[in-house]
Specification:
Order of helices and strands: HHHHHHHHHEEHHHHHHHHEHEHHEE
Number of helices: 20
Number of strands: 6
Radius of gyration: 26 Å
Strand content: 5-15%
Shape: globular
Oligomer: single chain
Helix content: 55-70%
Number of domains: 2
Largest sheet: 4 strands, mixed
Strand order of the largest sheet: 4-3-5-6
Amino acid sequence: MQRLKLFIRTIPPGILAISLMAVYLTSMAPGLSWANYGADGGDLITAAATGGVAHPTGYPLYLLLARLFQLVPIGSLAFRTNLMSAFATGSAAVLVYGLVTRSLSPSNPRQYWLVGLASGFAFGLSPLVWSQAVITEVYALHSLFVALLLYLSVNYFSLQFTQKRIDCLLGLTFGLAMGNHITTIILLPVIFSGTLLRKPTLTQGNCWRKNWQVDSRSLLRRLTWLGVGLLVYLTLPLRALSQPPVNWGNPVTLDGFAWLVSGKLYQGQLFILTLPSVWERVRVIVALFLEQFGIPGLSIGLIGLIVFFKPTHLVRSTLWIVAASSAFAIVYATTDAFMYMVPAFLCFAIWIGMGLGGLMDASSRRFHIIGPLIGLVLLLTLFIQAGNHWPQVDASQDQRAELFGEDVLALAPAHAIVFAKGDRAVFTLWYFQFALQNRPDLAILATDLLQFDWYEQTLHSNYPDLNLPGPFPFPETVVVANSERPVCYVQYIQSAEISCFPARDPQLP
């Protein structure tokens, strides 16, 4: 009987996971894709496949997990890496289901299975989240860690795990999450607020008063295991020691490691927006919430936060995550900064569950059928919105990156030097040459990286026969120093731009 009850309880989250995976697989990119702001995919796939180091901040945990998915004997190398995004997003949606059902009714979560499904689908089918589930990027795994840290922090494992074990799991998971994306640091108050306890103390007037005190043992355990999780960053210099073809920062030195992990390359994009630009971004973020959940979902989420507000750890944590994620997306002046709103949308999906649960309870007191009807209407609305958003997020037909890479490799003369400009062009050619091992005779140079000494070292390792006049070689000086080799200039803005020229010296090596 107990096993039967457990099986019944797993049916709704199982339906959620299977449904989302079916949607993701149907709309997933079959190979390397630039869809949905996925230009970094070539870099991440190649770094994972070759034991290399990805662009700052290195993403060591992501690279390790991506390599495991790349061993799955299904589809292309890029498709296997895309699978990890789908798996991570589906798992995050299931955790949203668990967070909502247990927070509404810890003693009987089955009572709110419809609420949990609505919340899980609200998150998993929101267009921004969905868009990252079908390509290679780090944000899907980031959302899984945010959901897992929330689940651990509210201690829904209290019956199975002691507080000591929860402390260890929280610290370790937080450290590993930082190894996927450094912005996980915004969850720091969520993780360590649990070490603050209100304990009664006797005042001078012999009155008992509750004051906040730090549980030093719990704090020490979480900090210790946080340090253990952060050790995943040590894999970066170990990977760099093998001189892989993709080796950002060459983090074998302390300076190189600090440059990579701190994201120094992108720090100049912080806090540079003017006040009108900030206000415009605020308007964009508000519009994003409306786009993700529609008017019904947005309304129910706000009702859950405002009308059915409960000062629990989960509610306080989600409030903080929404505020911190939104603030970072506003002050980080990049074109894809809105991707950092994924944790905020996860939290808002939880608020939708709170609002729907409250509305179902209130309406069922008079008419029992009204509560489930509200939930079913919301689910239907979410499915209709998903159908409308499908063309927006569908990456299954995006062949731009694959065609661009094939065109460059087909058009480039033998032993040509290929100067690639822009992330799309550079990362795509890295994927074809280093990950798929096509056209090893070409020397692919990223013109935007020639200013870095670590990149010059990588070029010497990748192409030992190439003459690189330094210390900072320019394309013109490289062409002159290698006059016996043909030259191509490639980039992709609105379309492929490929120009090739014969060698100045007709004698090839």
